[in-house]
Protein 1
Amino acid sequence: MAANGNGEVAVNGNGAAAARKQKGTLPSITTSDKHHHEVCHDMSAPTVKAQTIDELHSLQKKKSAPNTPIKGIQGTFAALPEEERQKQQLQSISASLASLTRGSGPKVVKGDPANKSQTNQKVHQHHVAAPTISASDSSLKFTHVLYNLSPAELYEQAIHYEKGSFITSTGALATLSGAKTGRAPRDKRVVKDDVTGKELWWGKGSPNIEMDEQTFLVNRERAVDYLNSLDKVFVNDQFLNWDPENRIKVRIVSARAYHSLFMHNMCIRPTPEELEEFGTPDFTIYNAGQFPCNRYTHYMTSSTSIDLNLARSEMVILGTQYAGEMKKGLFSVMHYLMPKRRILSLHSGCNMGKDGDVALFFGLSGTGKTTLSTDPNRYLIGDDEHCWTETGVSNIEGGCYAKCIDLSREKEPDIWNAIKFGTVLENVVFEEHTREVDYADKSVTENTRASYPIEYIPNAKIPCVGPHPKNVILLACDAFGVLPPVSKLNLAQTMYHFISGYTALVAGTEEGVKEPRATFSACFGAAFIMMHPTKYAAMLAEKMLKHGATGWLVNTGWSGGSYGSGSRIKLAYTRKIIDAIHSGSLLKAEYRKTEVFGLEIPTEVEGVPSEILDPVNTWPNKLGYNDTLMKLAGLFKNNFETFTDHKIGKDNELTEEILAAGPNF
Ligand SMILES: Nc1ncnc2c1ncn2[C@@H]1O[C@H](COP(=O)(O)OP(=O)(O)O)[C@@H](O)[C@H]1O
Ligand SMILES: C=C(OP(=O)(O)O)C(=O)O
Ligand SMILES: [Ca+2]
Ligand SMILES: [Mn+2]
């Protein structure tokens, strides 16, 4: 449409270009004062309600509606006027960031220092510390606090300021965690004092490597000074545990938008009202992961240190930016706090059927907790960390952290679809132009991860709580290929395997693991438990007995030979096995007892080839199978030796039964 019926040339669209092509002469523009004409004039649009560009931009963002006042709740801040509440909140943040040697906290300001014109700034600026004569430079500057930003704001922060942050084709935020792409359990330290010295599990097999209070303070000061030296820090105030009676308030202070978004996804997100009465946190994380610890500091054996101080309710992270360190650090804290309240903390996934039947999925990293608890036919309660109380189960977290190496839409549709706007994609590789992620690419690490809020899974059960579990599924990824795909366990066997916590560590999640290696990790999470494993085991036995839960051992690892010659059991088969456990059909199956491990294996499972149910059938070399079986049995026996002189629960009889429930040879 180069010209309309009146012979006028439309300036917009193709007309001008087409006309220009005609020997370079510019088209003549006829102006008309007839208003209702087919030609679109600029004047016909309503004018913008701004006089300047700055004013125009200021119109773009509207201030959030004021938070509704809390009615009927006598919270810390409930009765305070807005101004006073803001002041107390900033004082609380300043107190968190206080250097312990200088006494007072930094002057904190809310908002991005880049937004000088920010209207909030006047209102939210409070000089908390009175200037002192011995002032250092750090006491002269302001610490800008980006407080509980939204995912959209965090995206902008990440993309603008953090190298390696990109938006993928499905809208997720791709980022790099730096040199560390997995947890560093050897760099974990726990303050040993008079109380924790008695309460916690120390020594051989324990994840708690001691440090003293003084050294903790040195690292804390290092982290706080680092954070205060930055232009701005991110502060997240959130909750742990969906059980309202046992909810823990956590504050995470971090230097990266990526870390703030990760914790936004992983912890429970407070409502504006809940945030108003947040008050003082129960626990604080100082994540100064970009800054190393000082190896001249006592107890430091590398540049990474993850330090837990239960007396101070604080954790300090130096020298690692792997985000999983924060969520698993808080999990350790829950493994201390909850059992003190007679609540069992569980390293397990959890889901629920339409009829309210709950299943727990215990397992070490990479065994299938996230994959198998995320089941389109069931309600997801959580993928990794739970509590079992007198009334049922509750998720500790508000999000999931899925492995995404080799992720496929067909095999794991719910996880695939959760990777969208708001999701953090750690260490994945994507196509430069289309930003399509190649989930098969291990160039950065094998431990690629996606962190998303739990409601990104369509059938998430919100609130994430459920009744007492009916099935307790122990997942082991057996790289030797000798454990059956599924076995039914009696209570003593369940306890034996729970305490043993056998699996093969697969590459990536922990540093230095390049190929599957047999490990025993008590309670399927020795890296996170704080007290002796028998304490958790006794609680589990008591609860399973009381509520009549059935134990199962599911091998999600190798079949047809060990790692290298056999192959991993097809996910589709494992899903069929899990379906049969949930439906109750497997409980009624016919069973046969295996030699050596004495495991009850079914002769048939719907949808699974019967010959794979006894692993011996899948091995081409029967002698090789027997040798490997004996080798694994020996490893179990050796490992259990540390537990032989520990009583499990009040009952000696159970202890004896558990000891007898291991391999017999
Ligand atoms: N038979 C199987 N059962 C469970 N997971 C399997 C199986 N075969 C392959 N996998 C893969 O193993 C990984 C299990 O990881 P994930 O569920 O994240 O473990 P966890 O949550 O216990 O750390 C996923 O990448 C999944 O696709
Ligand atoms: C985040 C982790 O948990 P998992 O692998 O069990 O999902 C981890 O171990 O670092
Ligand atoms: Ca996968
Ligand atoms: Mn997981």
Protein 2
Amino acid sequence: MPPFDSISLPLIDVSCLLHHDSDVAQNELIRTTSNAILDALAQYGAFQCITATSNNFNIFDTAELLLHTSKTDGIGAVKRGGFVRGYIGMGHESGGAALEVKEGFSYGDSESCASSNKLTGENIFPPSLSANEKEKAQDYYERCCAVARAISQGLAIALPDNPLLQQFSSENDARLAKAISLLRVFKYFPYSAANSDNAPHSTSAAIPHVDRLGSSPHTDWGYLTLIQSNEAGLQIASTPTVVPETVWRTVEPIPGAFIVNGGDYLSVLTHGRILSPLHRVVNLDNSFRTSMVFFYYPPYDTKVPAEFDLELLNESGESSKAVERLKHLSLFQDQRSDKSKGRKLDLKTVCFGDYISSKWESVSRDY
Ligand SMILES: O=C(O)CCC(=O)C(=O)O
Ligand SMILES: [Fe+2]
């Protein structure tokens, strides 16, 4: 693996957006913070995010226990039309052709019930996980929702003319977002772990000989992604697609901080002003890496505004570079391994939740 430079992302403390009050000095800080968020997401599509209580949460022991007890209890995943909860063994998901050398655990809102829509349903926690650890995992979900909502409120302040951004930062929409957003615990292994002899539990014997990666190059489909990791390995591309000139830069994790990525849907709603960065995960030094990846979504029933049309946007004088970038987002790509089966949905005719459900189905892999 060649050496990679690091990318230096802005570090933003979003505490003032988490604890609103109407005092005037606070308002100035809120405005400055909101503009800093917008600037970072417009320039890099990402930033490092801290809050006053960043160092109070050590989630990695809980992450380890979630994965460990899933394996010892032998729990698998429940997959239902794009809804995924529970333990995902190595090789069972990929955003591209590579074998992603990682295992994962997927969970969401603890109050979510199956009847609401395709993205809601009960979590599958391993029976031998202690009540205390389960509570820590659930509290962490709440914390991620609160921080993501604070950031979305900042964006609504920085972009007052965008009606959907205003709406998504409201209490009602934040509640709907919380019901369908998703937390993924990932453990990335040294690539040698994918050789069938020493493959971890639940990996089927015959894994095809394809490229190994931690996570294939992709953009995140949703609104915002919050990532917390104990090791480097996440990299952001210098170009919107993988081309020979692409330079990959490593994001160095700051203990306690979230790395925040703009998502494809947010990029769409801001006509490409906010970037959804192309990123991947590589194993830099044969080590294990754990990350908590929180995908924050808009409400299930959200529809893209009727005026959203890539061709029309081009003609309407939006910066063509920004519009050009939108076409390459993973949200619009067909990520199925077998593209001949079924059909790809059109984001202009179906709501966000139905569309994302079909995206999750498309990255499921069975070897
Ligand atoms: O584990 C990470 O650092 C990021 C993973 C990621 O990009 C994803 O799951 O979408
Ligand atoms: Fe991602």
Protein 3
Amino acid sequence: MAEFLLQNPFIFTFITIFLLWLIIKRVVATGRKNLPPSPPKLPIVGNLHQLGTLPHHSLQSLASKHGPLMLLHFGNVPTLIVSSADAAREIMKTHDVIFANRPDSSVSRRLLYDMKDLSVAPYGEYWRQLKSIFVLQLLSNKRVQSFHAIREEEIALMMEKIKESCLSSSPLNMSDLFTAITNDVVCRSAFGRKYRDGAIGEKFLQLISEFLGLLGTISVGEFIPWLAWINRVNGFDARVDYVAKELDEFLEGVIQEHMELENSSGNDESGENFIDILLKIYKDNTTGVSIDRDSIKAIILDVFAAGTDTTSTVLEWAMTELLRHPIVMKNLQNEVRGILNGKQDITDVDLEKMHYLKAVVKETLRYHTPIPLLVAREAREDVNVMGYDIAAGTMVITNAWAIGRDPLYWDEPEKFQPERFLNSSIDFKGLDFQLIPFGAGRRGCPGISFAMATNELALASIIQKFDWELPKGAKGEDLDMGERPGVAIHRKVPLFAVATQCYF
Ligand code: HEM
């Protein structure tokens, strides 16, 4: 080749000029762009090494130096980090349609039937159809109310367990208790029954826990494609394939069972579970919505991925803060017991009156945002945000945890003070961008009512029916407040507490 070029100086000159023109064009084009500030990056990994084990903390500290919109590079992937309420409003309201995509991921593809679920489905007609199924059919207010009996029964079982421990004054692992209750409520709403006991139940819970872990793993191959071989060598890919295959077999069995027992829940729509509802849509060609068997399985996995861990972290951190703040615990107990006035069952109407309870939950969502970095978005086209040029394909991460602790919007943000919400209209529904634990806009969470119904009823019940202390006379300030890395942030060490008095 070199010999050929030397013998043909005209071609050699032409190619050289052409390459130079390409380089200059690129430099000029980049130079003209007004990119957001970026911390220095390393070759190959970019800024990945700066994420640390708890990225919401590292990104908050980087943002304090570089501003509310910074451009990082995760390997090859340009990533916009959003760290203020104003910037979040630009992404999720002003330019919501442009940022309505999710980044592609080979792990999600393999675990979620080529992205046939709602959470990671690319923005478009299929996503729109699934969103309407979630909002209108699976998680409408009416449907969430129809699951009240499930919540009540499962919480009654939890109360019995606590009562037993209360009688023997033994410490209870509250973290495990909250994980179990949220799993069981989701499981019964999804399948109409629990999968907890026996070999099948245990295997299912194990698979779901591994599934959540794999979805939350930062896999190098996603960001540096030529290093994807590492996932094959270290067994990560094999694990993904194993979990995908085993979950598929389990879900196939469940679907088959429901098809055989068709109409088992009769015509009473209030008794329907998610699988029955989805099977109806699958078979009915008149609804204008078409889903296949894989969509049903992907949707069910979405419900477990998005609805279990997230909900239980709220209970875990709320209880942690109540034990650290005995006055807040007392205020809450007074409200709940005052409203119930000796009545044992708590209805949705009772919960509506519990303003302090709602303030405690809001403060927990602000201070311990369950998914601190929300769910990543991706720009579908070039766009200018707050004067900065953002290229199509840029991944977007919103640090909702940092926004919830921004002194620009919050007085004494590092203190747990539910009172701040008592005379305030600030809510978490996606309109107040200083409090966005559920995201906002088109891709906002459709499961808010479902999650809040379980959280409020569980919290009100354990506060109404028991008095609480930390084991061995420990004080609130002794509690380890460390966080465990993951998509949803749990306590690093489980929360143990003692129910000292029982009131039923
Ligand atoms: C405390 C509990 C929960 C929290 C903190 C939470 C948080 C979130 C967040 C941050 C997002 C991304 C929003 C965005 O991109 O703007 C999301 C999306 C989603 N959530 Fe939740 N969620 C919770 C409970 C639930 C429950 C119970 C379900 C279902 C039963 C659910 C289903 C979903 C789905 C399907 C999406 C994807 C929506 C889309 O991409 O269009 N979530 N959630």
Protein 4
Amino acid sequence: MKKEQVVHCQFSVWYPIFKKHTIKSLVLPLPQNVIDYLLDDGTLVVSGSDHNSQPIQTSDAEEDIQWSDDETTATATAPEFPEFTSAVLEAINALGGRVFPKLNWSAPRDANWIALNSSLQCCSLSDIFLLFKSSDFITHDLTQPFLQCSDQDSPDPVISYELVLRKWSELIPGGEFRCFVKENKLIAISQRDYTQYYQHILKQEEQISQAIQEFFSQHVQYNFLDEDFVFDVYRDSQGRVWLIDLNPFGEVTDSLLFSWDELMSGGETAYQQQEGPAFRYTTSEVTVQPSPCLSYRIPRDFVDLSTGEDAFKLVDFLKLKKSQQEESEEEENPTQ
Ligand SMILES: Nc1ncnc2c1ncn2[C@@H]1O[C@H](COP(=O)(O)OP(=O)(O)OP(=O)(O)O)[C@@H](O)[C@H]1O
Ligand SMILES: [Mg+2]
């Protein structure tokens, strides 16, 4: 995979080509001070000036807490990006009030657990910042987009970072498929949410494969800037196929139910012997696996405690702390 292929898969590059066949979206340039804020590990303070949503909840006791024991340390203040904030709010409103956020390539899929609604649905800039700042995928886009490219000796292309806002759409995971294109030929299709078994895929295998092949030959083939790429589609309940995303043909892109070796090899692989693309999906409950993003989470108890969502857990936690404290005091004063 070459750096140029990664450049071509940026949202703002492919979107104008395939606009008619994908979810309505708006792209806003990301100012440098916002990029700096996203990369700064220290601040997760979000400005209350974005009126679309409630400010992040703080505890009643907050005023009593001394965050700093050093008088000279500046208090953490929320950075303000007034112009950017109003541009984002305007875009969110134009897209119906609820959006799915991305950067040039990635969505913060690894961070949905941190949001109060456990979803990537955002209604304000603070919703977006919370997800972006918690996501390794977003950091990858910002810091090392060309990590796995084969032409490492060539200079990195200059990237203009962008915030992509897509109209929120309730996509049923069983309708999502990833399609691998090599030399402008559709060679393989994989169920996207391969950890689950969907009966309808088994039942409609032929129709699904046919619909995706038609969509490819009518709208995608020869229209993109590369001849090797991966595109994601959604087949809705009416059987209509939509484009969801374009990704580089290479290891940065998850090959799902295929392996990159088989996709790249010119050898005698299953898909070359048959007419159409190889179509793989999970065929039974037995193979169901946990979601791949689970490893990015922290234990549920931590989340509940930190957000104060589960009062009983908090009470138990405080009791535990108290009894530990008493135990250690007893150890220090064994005579008591
Ligand atoms: N507009 C939308 N509204 C709601 N959900 C969406 C929307 N767009 C995408 N999704 C959901 O989010 C998932 C990830 O979206 P997308 O493919 O754009 O992210 P990505 O970061 O490019 O993922 P990958 O790393 O796998 O390429 C999709 O599989 C889909 O389930
Ligand atoms: Mg993608």
